[in-house]
Structures are given as C-alpha cells and as structure tokens.
Amino acid sequence: MSSQNFDSVPTVTIIGAGPCGCAFAADLASRGKDVMLYAHPDHRGGTDMIEKNGGWLNADGEISGRYQIKTTSDLYLAIRHSSFLVTTVPSYGQDTILTLLSQFDLRKHTLVINVGNFFYLSARQKVNAHCILETDISPYAVRITGDTVFVKGCKKSLAIWAEPPTTQVDRLDPQAELGLRRQVESIFSQKLNWCTNLLEVGLNNVNPVVHCPAVLMNAGWIEATKGDFFFYAQGMSPSVSRVTEKLDLERLAIAHAYGLEITPITAYMNQNYSNPRQYSDYHDFASGSVVHNKTKSSPSSLNHRYLLEDILYGLVPWYELGMKVGLTSPTIRALIEMAQIVSGFDYFENGRTLTAAGLGDATKEQVLNALGGPVEKAPVHAAFPDSPIGNSIESHAPLQTAQVVG
User: Which of 18, 112, 312, 373 has the fewest C-beta atoms under 10 angstroms from its C-beta?
Assistant: First the structure.
C-alpha cells in the first residue's frame, strides 16, 4: 500500500444494501466520497429504491439529504470501484459474501467488516485481503421507510480491530500501519477505538445483550401484535431489564477472564448516544431513550436477526469462550436453549464456534494469540453503574483478479 495520501479515501464500496448499508452510503456521500453500493442479486435491499429514484438515495434524521449512489449486483465491478470494501451484511449472510470474495485477488484491498461478530474466525484461511478489520457494532440506529433511509441516531464511537500483523499478506511497518488507520478513520464519521485483540471487539458488541432477552421474553407480544409495540420503552420492562443486566454481567466476566475490562451496558448507552441525561440503570435507559423510541422497532416475528444473528454469532461464541476459562454463564446458556426451543433450530451446532475456526482444543493463551495476543494494558472504561443486579492465511489461486480503478 502506498505510504502517501493516508488521509484521503475518495472511493468506498459498501457490500450489503440493507438499512445499515444505505445509511453508511449516505454518510460517506455526505462527506464527498464516491460510493458504490453492492447488493447480492438475491438480496437487493435498498438498491431497487435507489434505482427507482434515478440513482439517488433519500436520507432523513441524523443524516439528511439526497445523495447520488452507484449501485451494482456485480461483485467484480464493486471490487474494482475501490480498494476499501466495507461489508454491512448481517452475520448470517457473511459466509455467502466470504465465499464470493474468496474468488478474487484482494491483496490490494482492505476489508472492513461492520458488524464483525468474530468474522475473522471464518475468514482467516479463506481470503487474501491486504488487511481484515472488524468493528463491534453498527454505526447507526436506522430503518428504511418508503423510499427513505431514516437514521434515528449515530453512535459516537466504535471499537475496531485489525488482524494480527503476522498473518497479513504484506506485514505493515509502523508508518504504514498508522497510515492505514488514518485511512480507515476517514471512512467512519465515528471515533474509532483501536483494539489489540479481536476478543475485545467481539465482546464489546452490545447487540446480543440488548436484543436477545427482550425478544424471547416478549415472544407472545411479538407473535400477537406482529411487533406493534415500542421494543424499548414497552418491551424492556423492569423484569426484562434485570435479565438484560444479568446477561451483561456474564459478558463482562468472560471479558475479565481474558484480561479485558469492557464497558457495562448502561454506561455504553450513556457514552455512545446524545442523550438528554445520564441513565441510572438499563430500564431507565430503555424507557427514557429518545433515540431508541423514535420508532417502535420491534421485530414482527421471532424469525429475526435479533435471534438469528445475535445468538448464532454473539451468544454462542461468548458461551464457548466462557467455558474455556471455567465460566458456565447460566443466563447466556438459558437464552440460547430457550431460543432453540422457540425456533426449532440448533444454535450450538450452527453458530460461529471456536471448533469451526480450528480453535476448539486451543487453550486460553492459544485463543488470545490467534486473535491478536494478550492484552498487555487494558483500556480505561467507565466504572460499573449502580444496578439492581448486583494461523496464517492460505495462499490460493483466485478465479478472478480485479484491479482497482484509478
């Protein structure tokens, strides 16, 4: 990668045209970047809406305006458009995208996975990207309404991780690594908190904490009303919030066992949104958050990414990581088992497991080393709030070689 123009990324390709992908495209275009939005032919997302508008994307809310966006369902063209590829597909669609990307020579491309959910565990031996990075959570609270992407809120910061230097195709020297970070930072409008180990990013994703208890404990209401209620203010009652906080304590305990001190859920919400006040506990946040109660935002069925994504790619790897260090995580396990009964689907068998990544028999130290090495100095995070709860990439011959235009 060139050591010049580190702060300038004029073109970006977004892979995934759902609400997050469209919001990301609008955000990038609002800052003058040339954006191409790729949609899988079987999952067109917002591309039909954009094409019907003559190539324009309407955005409202925190990002407001009308932006010209290139669209395609040809991944070859999408890869040619930019050396920076940002995927926004749900985690259960990542394997499909990974299979498609593995056909290309990506040695000159930087691949940013948003949201990562331990994507690297699947990708570490399948793609030859110059660098793979993962973020912990979506930058936006967003919905598509009619012909407009409505951005309810933008997070202030994201955790991000880059694969260990020893596994990069071309090892970066310190100056090149700093330059790459600056380029990636120019893609995001949020502050990026750089992490040294993938576990910090994967365990910092609060989506499973927020979504899973609320969906499972409101199953009757979801099925009866098709989601016609305020998911936060009404669905996250004091009892649901207590389960949420207990789940969060188990997440924090797993992180602590690996030498990480991550931010508790209520402190996270206080830090990452422009709230009118500081919330004292999780129920206080859920009932009082203006951003999260602008729309009802409840899933209309239990066949929803709040379970399919957040359990398969969140709770399952968390549980396995905990078991490896002797933590039984009873709340996490109970939620997974409840979801299996509700869905008739084996989440343990089909989740993103350490075994599938070749780390099933690895020790705690081996897991840490495979995902970035031990964390020598834990980051400083907010204190616990008061609460009622007390290996190398395989070389392969690409089927196609895409050169970046320009």
Answer: 373
| pLDDT at residue 376, rounded to an integer | 61
- The topology under which CATH files domain 11-195 is Rossmann fold (3.40.50)
Q: pLDDT category, 123, cuts 50, 70, 90? A: confident
pLDDT band at 279 (very low <50, low <70, confident <90, very high): very high
Q: How far apart are CA 81 and CA 143, in angstroms?
A: 27
pLDDT at residue 241 in the model: 98
Please tell me whether residue 29 adopts helix, strand or coil conformation. helix
* CATH code, residues 205-370: 1.10.1040.10
Report the predicted TM-score, pTM, of the whole model to 2 decimal places: 0.81
DSSP track, 96-151: HHHHHHTTB--TT-EEEESS-SSHHHHHTTT---SEEEEESS-SEEEEEETTEEEE
- CB-CB contact of 53 with 37 (8 Å): no
User: What ranges do the domains of the chain cover?
Assistant: 11-195, 205-370
Residue 402 has phi, psi (to 5 degrees) of -105, 125
Residue with tokens 């793979």: 132
With cut-offs at 50, 70 and 90, classify the pLDDT of residue 397. very low
| SS3 at position 66 | strand
d(CA 186, CA 37): 18
For the cut 90, the answer to whether the pLDDT of residue 6 exceeds it is: no
Cis peptide before 35 (omega within 30 of 0): no
pLDDT at 164: 67
Residues 6+ apart with CB under 8 A from 195: 159, 160, 161, 201, 204, 372, 379
Q: Percentage of the chain with pLDDT > 70?
A: 88
DSSP string, 265-310: HHHHHHHHS--SS--SSHHHHHHH-TGGGSS-B--SSSSSHHHHTT
- Between β-strands 157-162 and 131-135, what pairing exists: parallel, antiparallel or unpaired? antiparallel
CA distances from 364 to 55, 325, 361, 368 (A): 50, 7, 10, 6
